[in-house]
Each structure stands twice: as C-alpha cells, then as structure tokens.
Amino acid sequence: MKKKFSQLPLRSGVGIIVLNKDNKVFVAKRIDNSMNFWQMPQGGIDGDENFLKAAYRELEEETSIKNVELIKEIDGTITYELPDHLLGIIWKGKYRGQKQKWFLMRFTGDDSEINIATKQPEFLDWKWIELDLITDLVVDFKLHVYKELKEKVKKIIN
User: Fold this and answer.
1) Residue 78 contacts residue 98 (beta carbons within 8 Å)
2) Mind listing the pLDDT tens digit for each residue in 41-96?
3) 3-class DSSP state for residue 6?
4) Dist CA 102 CA 17 (whole Å)
5) pTM (two decimals)
6) Contact indicator for 41, 58 with CB cutoff of 8 Å
C-alpha cells in the first residue's frame, strides 16, 4: 500500500506550541480518534499564506485563542508520514504526510477564552500539561515530531 502512495506530496503545514504562564503546554484530544491521543494545534497552509499567518489562523480556528505572543519560530521543519491505514483517506488522499513549520507562543489570555466548540470543531477536550508529558500522549506516527519539539522547547525556555 505504501508504494502506491509514495509519489504523493507532503502537505505544507504549521504547528503551534502554546505555553501558559506556568510553561505548561496546551494539548487537545481529536474528535476523529477514539484512542486517548492528544496533540498541539496544527494544520495546513491556505493559498499564499506565510507560515506565521497560517499558525495564527489555525490556532484561532481550532481553539478560539487570539491572545498569544510569539516567543520563537522553531528552526527548520519537521516531517511525518502517515501510517499505511490512513494513506488515501486523510486529506482526501492528496498527501502522504506533512512537512511542518512550528512556532512557540505564550498564551496571554484567560482560560475562559479557550473554546474548542468552533465552527468546524476538531477537538473533544483540552488541557494544560507539563512539557515532558507531550510525548506520552501523542499518536505513534507523530512521536518523533513531539520528541524533537520537546527538546527544542526545553532549550528555549530554560
């Protein structure tokens, strides 16, 4: 199955690591996954958007969060490939994975601002967790992404 989809392109995307005042990380549980996996906000780039504009848009679309300050654009990009059972299904079968640009942001609002019951909801629940726990809750095919991000964020905030 993988061979059939190996010619598909990677989708360009962004991800946002949102820290609260205590340096806890925002994670949310996806609606379309029955397992207990959580993720940070992320999504694709629309049209001629730049990465940062896409990050702010995705964050607001998925969480209603507007009150953030950019701490740092994470160096480089991180790629993940979909597992065989999702190839040809996710993103209408157009992509084999994502090449993501990540941003570290500080949430400056109040938790009451966070609303995952958006126009097109993607999440069932959300919470703040310790940075070290992000690799315990993520779906396996994104584990390497979260491991790399955890190390990069530790260097920035310490």
Assistant:
1) no
2) 999 999 899 999 999 999 999 999 999 999 999 999 999 999 888 888 888 889 99
3) coil
4) 7
5) 0.93
6) yes
Lookup: tokens for 31: 């609606």
CA distance 84 to 13: 20
Please give the DSSP secondary-structure letter assigned to residue 64. Answer: -
Query: How does DSSP classify residue 19?
Result: E
CA distance 27 to 16: 10
Q: Which two tokens stand for residue 30?
A: 């996806």
Tokens of 3: 């061979």
Spatial separation of the C-alpha atoms in residues 56 and 66, rounded to whole Å: 8
Q: Name every residue whose Cβ is closer than 8 Å to that of residue 95 and which is 6 or more positions away in sequence.
A: 8, 9, 10, 11, 82
Q: Which of 79, 55, 47, 51 is nearest to 144 (CA)?
A: 79
Amino acid at 56: Y
Question: Would you state the structure tokens that stand for residue 113, as one six-digit string?
Answer: 């601002």
- Alpha-carbon torsion 97, 53, 153, 30, what sign? negative
What the chain holds in terms of domains, given with CATH numbers, is 2-157 (3.90.79.10)
Q: For residue 67, which phi and psi values (nearest 5 degrees)? A: -85, 85
State both tokens at 58: 């995705």
User: 8 near 96, Cβ under 8 Å?
Assistant: yes
